[in-house]
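User: I'm writing a tutorial on reading structure tokens. Could you give me a worked example: one chain, its sequence, then its tokens, then a sentence or two explaining what the tokens reveal?
Assistant: Sure. Here is the example chain.
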Amino acid sequence: MTTGVIVALCTAPGAVAETLAKALVGERLVACVNVVPGVRSFFRWQGEVDVADEVLLVIKTTRAQVPALQRRLPELHPYQVPELLVFDVADGLPAYLRWVVAAAAPAE
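And here are its predicted structure tokens:
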């Protein structure tokens, strides 16, 4: 089953997480963003192992909005290479899936 709804993950510094979430929802690129605090990320950057205290953004939107999200997120995000991983939603509560589709639809 294809719902047309996706969940995307993005990490960010805590200081900008709310700004990112409000912008993405306000611009109708996404229906909802959950900001999950307390993420500690270990990663390789510029040849070194680095560590950062971050928050996790759990983003709900539609497959149709992914290209616009891919364009806009780097403009808003402070990282040189922001994380954006997209996963198709196979199933869910029909009323919720309909709400995501309606809430993430571009304004007319």
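What the tokens reveal: The chain has a mean pLDDT of 96. Residues 14-26 form the longest helix (13 residues).
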